[in-house]
Amino acid sequence: MKFIDYPDSDMMMMDLANVLAGELENTLLTHDFASFAVPGGTTPGPIFDVLCAADLDWSRVHVMLTDERWVPETSDRSNTRLLRERLLTNRAAKAVYVPLYADAETPEEKLSELSDALAPELPISVMLLGMGADMHTASIFPGADQLDHALNGDDLLVAMRAPGAPEPRITLSANVLRGAMSRHLVIVGNEKRAALERAQGMLPEEAPIAAILPGTTVHWAES
Ligand SMILES: O=C1O[C@H](COP(=O)(O)O)[C@@H](O)[C@H](O)[C@H]1O
């Protein structure tokens, strides 16, 4: 794991957006398309605001979420909504979007359909992850009903429910996350830094982020 400590989060978001744009550009030099996985939640919005204006051939960038909350796009909790409002806009409006949500009561009903659409996009070319203070990443939560399946199974996508998540989730499995050619984790604040430090001495069953850390570049700013 490589750890980069930034003077402030504005600088971090700007720098990281440029790093991600550079990696996508490099991928497009040698591949027909680049697959790009990003988190939802409260952290990545400012990165998306910069990245969406990057001068890239976005029509060859396939954007997907690392995980989704099983709520319609009209909900404030929808990660898809965040993406549409802040990443898939400006120049990046030309990107191909690979959904992790479809209209159904439960994620299980759409798992096989969404997995089939995801398979041709793998391995992920460039990935950005987030992390909660409880050490979950994507939607792989400590205490989740399908934790072992998400950490150790071969499926691409896993549907799960967890005490720390107010709604059902769908998440890329640890296997898919670890397969990404380039892996970045972005976190802000001392609470998450301390959680990350603790996670390094823990099993993935207690601290799911630990399953993805080897080979990942961590970007951190205090505030
Ligand atoms: O629920 C989620 O949480 C994590 C962390 O979110 P943050 O608000 O603490 O940045 C996020 O990475 C994940 O995509 C999201 O669904």
Automatic annotation (TrEMBL):
Keyword annotations from UniProtKB, A to Z: Hydrolase
MF GO annotations: 6-phosphogluconolactonase activity
GO biological processes: carbohydrate metabolic process; pentose-phosphate shunt
Enzyme Commission (EC) number: 3.1.1.31
Recorded metabolic or biological pathway in which this protein acts: Carbohydrate degradation; pentose phosphate pathway; D-ribulose 5-phosphate from D-glucose 6-phosphate (oxidative stage): step 2/3
Entry superkingdom: Bacteria
InterPro entries cross-referenced by the UniProt entry: 6-phosphogluconolactonase_DevB, 6PGL, Glc/Gal-6P_isomerase, NagB/RpiA_transferase-like
Pfam families the UniProt entry points to: Glucosamine_iso
Domain Glucosamine/galactosamine-6-phosphate isomerase: 7-219
Main EC class the enzyme belongs to: hydrolase
Catalysed transformations (reactions): 6-phospho-D-glucono-1,5-lactone + H2O = 6-phospho-D-gluconate + H(+)
Function: Hydrolysis of 6-phosphogluconolactone to 6-phosphogluconate.
PANTHER family per the UniProt record, alphabetical: 6-PHOSPHOGLUCONOLACTONASE
Family named by the database record: Belongs to the glucosamine/galactosamine-6-phosphate isomerase family. 6-phosphogluconolactonase subfamily.
Name of the protein in question: 6-phosphogluconolactonase
